[in-house]
Amino acid sequence: STMTEYLPALHEKVGIYDLEESVLWSATTAVLLTMVAFRSRMGYSRFWEGTGLLHQMKGEWFDTISNCVTFSIKARKTRPEEVNRFRHTI
Description:
Elements: H1 2-14, H2 21-71, H3 75-78, H4 80-89
């Protein structure tokens, strides 16, 4: 009851009734554009973070496979069939 009596007085005191539609539209548009820009920026930065992590993972896999091939060089003389099978598996 007191809230319903208080709100019209507050609106009149603040001057909400004096605002034109274009001002309200501009304020609403500005808030929405800010929110869309923030979300787009967050999505863009997440994309590039994921791309960087993907390249890092690719490098780690390359190093791992290189080590496996390198470490199997010496065994190739004694067990060539097993080494070939191992290398074709990776």
